[in-house]
Amino acid sequence: MNLVTNASHAIHENRIIEIGLEAMSFDESIKTQYPDFLPGRYARILVSDNGRGIAKENLNMIFDPYFTTKDLYKGTGLELFVVHGIVEIYGGHITVY
After folding, report:
1. How many whole angstroms separate alpha carbon 29 and alpha carbon 33?
2. Burial environment of residue 89 by CB neighbours within 10 A (0 to 12, 13 to 18, 19 or more)
3. Model pTM greater than 0.90?
């Protein structure tokens, strides 16, 4: 929910948010790209929006607690921090495109 909420805040007109779910299986070769992953079955959740995207200079900070580009009183910056924490707890990974 936090991921979708964050996406909705990133767009202003003609809001489009797409959510997808895909089953994936990985063998030992996954460790070359993601050393902490174990072989097995995973669910891939995709969320995309038609916003302008994340500025390159902000990409390395988007999962930091309290980092936000929102106006004062419009958000805390915790949404993506919480999403990242949950994904990590369950042994997952987040990729931002």
Report:
1. 8
2. exposed
3. no
CA distance 23 to 44: 6
**How many angstroms separate the CA atoms of 71 and 77, rounded?**
11
Nearest of 88, 96, 91 to residue 30 by alpha carbon: 91
Query: Distance between CA 5 and CA 17 in Å, rounded?
Result: 10
The pLDDT score that the predictor gives to residue 75 is 66
CATH fold for the domain made of 2-89: Heat Shock Protein 90 (3.30.565)
Dist CA 16 CA 8 (whole Å): 8
User: Helical H runs in 10-58?
Assistant: none
